[in-house]
Amino acid sequence: MNRLLLMLLAVSMGALLPVQAALNARLARAGGGPVVAALASFAIGTITLLLIALGSGMRLSSLAGAARTESPVVWLGGIIGAFYVGSVTLLTPRLGVALTFGLLIAGQLLLSVALDHFGLLGLPMQRVSVGRVAGILLLLVGVLLIRRF
């Protein structure tokens, strides 16, 4: 896939996350709290992914192979996702969408730079640079401005 197309996809999906947070917050108000809303979100997401997998001819049996060959650590992604969606659903109506996502992105970038720098979790190493540090600092300044205004 073309790198530019992949980058546009990343921006598009990033743009949809605040929409998801707002919808889940609304569902939480109507349906019993953030855990219930996150559960509904994951259930609908699971059904959607199952339909996509079946419709595209993917073999679900490959999960059994992954279970045999990968470390149990790789399955923590689902647990992290559940806490992420539940937390965002809880935080969005209390902090606002802009501050919530500013803080989320700051946390993502801080850990992303560390993961890249040390090549953790099987990722290729990409050393910390002055430009990356400057980008994180600018983002943190942006979060402070969002919080203040």
TrEMBL record:
Residues spanning the membrane: 31-52, 73-91, 97-118, 130-146
Pfam family, one: DMT_YdcZ
Keyword Signal: yes
Database matches in InterPro entries: YdcZ
UniProt entry keywords in alphabetical sequence: Membrane, Signal, Transmembrane, Transmembrane helix
Annotated signal sequence range: 1-21
GO CC annotations, alphabetized: plasma membrane
Domain of life the protein comes from: Bacteria
Record flagged with keyword Transit peptide: no
Protein name (database record): Amidophosphoribosyltransferase
Species whose genome carries this gene: Solirubrum puertoriconensis
